[in-house]
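Slide 14.
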Amino acid sequence: MGYDRRYNLMVDHRHSYETRKREYRLKGSTFLPLLFLVNSMVWVLLFLYTNKPIFIIFIFAIPCFVFAAAKPIAGICIFFFWMIIIGVTRPIGVSLFSVNLLGIDLVVILALPAFIAALFKKRGGRVKTTKNPIIYVLIYMFIAICIGLIYGNERLWLTRDIRVFAYIIVIYFWSALVIDNERKLRILTVSLIVATAIAGLLALIIEHSALQGLLSDLGLQGYSESVGGLDVARVRFGGTETYSALMLPFLASLYFSKEKRYKYFALVALPFILIGLILSFTRTIWIAAGIGTFFSLVYTMRKMSGRKVMQFVLLLLILTTLLMGVLMISTTGGATYGEAAEYRLGRLFGGGSTSDPSVSVRIDESEALISSLRGNIFFGKGIGATYGFFISSTIPYISGWSHNGWFWLILKGGIVGFILIFFAVYLAIRNVEKAINETDEDNSLKLILIGYTSSIITLIVMSLGVNSIAGIGGAAFFGLFFCIARNANLFMEVTR
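Slide 15: predicted structure.
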């Protein structure tokens, strides 16, 4: 009897120890000051290095996340720190967009403390190195940089390309530090959706101002220039439409949550997300958002009735039609949104300059890029590689960027690098899907992971015509998704 009692006490003690050990791992790093320092530096830099209002998404989402997931004082400090930076740098005309340290972007320097902090991070569970998607991104980056240095590629394009992959790596390690349990994943997801909805509303204000001629720097005079000003304003809030497309699959999946708060949240955010999407006037983004939403519905149909799916599809169609109708009959500055949309879509098939990403320019661009790869198709021309083509058959143009994100990856890393990147994406999606399928319980966390999976598919499809991979928004989302895929099994432990 005594032996059995001692044995049971030992088992209970061991079980309690394992439980406390797992809870300790889930609580996060003991190096909180270093964690918040890296958090602040990374996201402040993301704001400083872009002149597009996508910073609205980051500047709103991250303080909200830190405020709710960690200590309130940390979120307040970060928020006011950003406000001070905006107030100091913008009015006096000080631009930090081109700040470099020995020709290397500061974001690359910031990768170092992120690496160091990650080394001291205590994380639950272990994942084999070969199953970590970020490894293949690092291999691609290493090969492309070596080839770029061997070929002596232009320094300007070299630093620009390095910046893109540095974003992915820094955001990955930042996420590994901060998003260490399912509660923080929920908070960050909700923060991103809310921030994107606010950015969509601000996009409408910018468009309205452009049509009314309130943006004096555009020099809007008369009907035709008012419509043209709308297209210029579209560039000014670039990035909002990208995240509007990425967040739509989230709303499609959260709509089916059994927790009413998530369902109502999706219904409230949906109109604002659609506004940002509609005002992009880019068919590639619309198609990509539709494909991502389709994947979300396919995933959820495994557990949900087809009737509920049809209800959401009908709601989406009705709401989109109503919003487009209201925008098209709203006359401002002598031009309606309908006429502006017709103007924008008509330009897609016209000639123009590099600032006019028409179909003809993109075709010429892709043909020139492929031709420049002769003899370098397997490993590409390295980071910083450029190619030349003619605009309107007379104007020569040299570029290291392409509207087709897939071809852009091939230019820098060749077929080998392209396979590495897409294998990393495939591996990440497989990791998330495996975590989703290992639980039969339907919960909001499972739907959030479905949303991330569908959103990365949206980003891949979108990059065929709108190179979001080489942009700050797309790179940040890649890093975030790779981290979520790395820890997906850990997040789902709470449901087992």
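Speaker note: The mean pLDDT is 69.
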